[in-house]
Specification:
- There is one protein chain.
- Helix content is 37%, strand content 13%.
- A hairpin with a 2-residue loop joins strand 3 and strand 4.
- It has a single domain, classed as P-loop containing nucleotide triphosphate hydrolases (Rossmann fold, 3-Layer(aba) Sandwich), CATH 3.40.50.
- The protein is of the alpha+beta class.
- It is globular.
């Protein structure tokens, strides 16, 4: 069996802070997080594993504009390092995508 390596607390802290989660204590129980905090922690955890491809379905849906912008920035940084990211969202384009596809009346354009 392969041992799991723990990520350094400072890397986790920096990632959460970049997503607007400065108020989350790393020892805090997951069930004590708000919905928006839990979504961002989940995204941070996923980004820190450095997947080759990330499907991000409405990751900014429950966030205010400022925190949605922070999440978009960290995802853009991950994409710039080579991660392929597909974002599904209902918000207007934020200028961070290299390609936008719109679903309307059952058709992609």
């Amino acid at each position: 069996s392969q041992a799991k390596l723990a990520l350094p607390d400072q890397l986790i802290r920096n990632t959460l802070d970049a997503m607007g989660c400065e108020d989350i204590d790393l020892a805090r129980a997951p069930h004590d997080l708000s919905g928006g905090q839990a979504a961002r922690v989940s995204l941070a955890r996923t980004l820190l594993t450095r997947p080759a491809v990330l499907l991000a379905d409405e990751v900014d849906a429950g966030l205010d504009d400022d925190n949605a912008d922070k999440v978009a920035s960290i995802m853009a940084s991950a994409a710039a390092r080579g991660m392929a990211i597909v974002r599904i969202r209902h918000r207007p384009p934020d200028g961070r995508s290299t390609r936008i596809v719109t679903l309307s009346s059952g058709r992609l354009s």
